[in-house]
Structure formats: C-alpha cells, structure tokens
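User: Fold this; tokens only.

Assistant: Input:
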Amino acid sequence: MKSICLKTNNEEMINYMIKNLEEGFENIVVSSNKFKIYRNVIVHYNGNNEKDFFINIANLLSEIIEKFYEEKILYRIIDNNYCYFEEIEKEIILKISEKIIEIQEASIQYKKEILKGLIYEYFLDNKVMVLDGFVNFRLGPYLEVLDYVVDTSVTNFVFGLQ
C-alpha cells in the first residue's frame, strides 16, 4: 500500500479534492483530519499500479493548482514585475494573460504537462505535500511559462494588441 498526505486549510480546495478522489480513483481510501496547523487529506492506494496512481494524482493536483492558484500567481507576477502600472491596468493585463492561457490550452498542453511532471516527480521522493509550499517553492519551470505569458500580455497591452 502507498499513502500520500496533502496539506491545506482551504476548505473549498479540500472539498474539490475529496470529491474528485472519491469519484475518479479506484483502489483508494481517503480520509481527512485536522492536525496542528493544516487539514490533511490522506490517500491510501492499495492497487497494483503505483505509476498510474501517481499520474492520476498529478493530473488532479495540476487541475487544483490551475483552479485555485494560477490567477493569484499571475497577479503576483504582474504586481512584482510591473509595479508601475495602475491597478486597473494590472487587471487588464491579468485578463489578457488568462485569455492567452485559454487560447494556448486549446492547442497545446505545454504548461499543464510541466505542472503534472513537477508533481509526479515530487511524489517519487515525498509522501507529504503542503500545497501552499509546493506552489510557492517547487514550481520554477511552470512559473517561467506564466512569466512569459505575462510578458506577452504586457506587450499586447502596451501596443494595444488585445
């Protein structure tokens, strides 16, 4: 049996995670407990194909990161790299960034594949993931893609190409 623990305090994220685990996975038992700081979602896998289990976990967590973190990450990049823009301009750049991602996701899955690969590799060596910590400190290549999207969005905004 293989077990992993996902730590967060975001109730909406926890509910999304548990619902998708229970509906989309076979040979697992899911439990959720509050410990000292975090609420832990513990997943016990008792099947025979650990590789597929980790691929499915990577797929689910990549969806969660995109759904619950990506907009905040984009805005943080905009705010840090382009602090001289007014708040309304930053919001416009954020919308352009989201549109670029939406258009690119339809044609290529590059960003999502990077994210899934980072998650998969992480679980090869670790049993516990603090989601906020993983997003803040382990997503370098994924953040580079988002940084490029923001740079492209700023160029589009400045030259009126939106």
